[in-house]
Write a structure and sequence with these properties.
Structural class: alpha/beta
CATH architecture of the largest domain: 3-Layer(aba) Sandwich
Distance between the termini: 21 Å
CATH superfamily of the largest domain: P-loop containing nucleotide triphosphate hydrolases
Number of strands: 12
Number of domains: 3
CATH class of the largest domain: Alpha Beta
Strand order of the largest sheet: 3-4-5-2-1-6
Radius of gyration: 29 Å
Shape: flat
Order of helices and strands: EEHEEEHEHHHHHHEHEEHEHEEHHHH
Helix content: 40-55%
CATH topology of the largest domain: Rossmann fold
Oligomer: single chain
Number of helices: 15
Amino acid sequence: MNLPSDTIAAPATPTGTSAIGVVRVSGTACAELGPQIFREKLEPRVATHLPYFDLAGNVIDDVLVTYFAEPRSYTGEHVLEISTHGNPTITQLVLDDLFKRECRAAEPGEFTRRAFLNGNLDLSQAEAVMDLIHARSARAIAAANQQLRGSLGQHLTTITEDLLMGLARVEAYIDFPEEDLPAEDRQTVLDLVNGVLRGTSRLLATHRYGDMLREGIKTVILGEPNAGKSSLMNALLGRDRALVSDQPGTTRDYLEEAVMVGPHWLRLIDTAGLNPSPGEIEEQGIAKTYERVAEADLVLLVLDATHPTPPLPEELNQKLDPARTRVLLNKTDLLGSNAPAAEPPEGFKSLSISALQQTGLPELESEIIAWADALGPQDQEDQIAINARHADALRRATEGLESTLSHLQSNGPTELLASDLRGALDALGEVAGKMDNEEVLDRLFSTFCIGK
């Protein structure tokens, strides 16, 4: 893969008026650009307050400039980071001058792509940069930081080394077809492959948690009309988002809003009430409710505590999982000293609340936090949460490893063992980016913002 030799420039801060605006420049020309623009030699890794002179000799702005000499920079190339006053016109004037000096505009993610190509980051770390920028919760930030520090790469290195040891034993016999892999070596390879499978399984188990960190916990609020679903949504949001009325069927479509609950980001989805005798429009809303339940990470089933629990539709019963459902006995403020008339379905955990009076909500939030935390790694220093690309590569590696086990157990040919192990090794290499695939890199880095 050819390394770039040109010099790129882009704003590293969002467009708009602010205290400062940062322009980032990376490439071979930065070493000469510094003295030309600022009219003095720049000491590496020292922030210096200087005037910025354009090609005509005019001062555009007084700036703070830092020069990073290769390879000790983010991209591994010579880099200039220029902090101007946060006027977008000033930022654009600086960029226009840099383009006249034969720099070109950076493409989305090109700085991070160069960091990857120059070996400063592996591909999983490069993805973590974008995860960190878009993280919406404390847990998501922690996981992105762990991945940026190379936690996923370190886990992969360990299991890859074991896989290489197994492959080396197998390939030692390929040049000698008259000799089959002896029993003791087959057992060694079997043990190594089983160990690698345990490692890939542990990583794959974090996929769902990773999706929730990146996309938010899809939390569906479900229940009969007038059970208090919309009141619960408003209470959790701390504002009136959903219409609340005594008239049944107020919510005929689903509403979605985001809210932080402790260190977790929830996507709250208020759904149409489960009216046993719906009108045509309500029926369409209930059909969407079933769709949202099937996709949900967490379901909050709201029951009116003052009325006996209605039978749930069989289609809904099939979709509800006790492990990801919490039953909320609502309107407890109307009970007085009476016990709730509603009873949660057998096997489902329940809490008593009053969405209107906001009683029981701290306990509900604590329950949601505990539920979400239990899905993640128990060691907070090991916050690995793979994404869809990682999961696809790990599944293909797992298939190759399982095929290897099958051949080992049936005393299959050594060549087939080697082929399966190489396939698994290549799939694991895709996670960290140990491959030469321009299409994959183009697709990945195109999702980055300009200047990163």
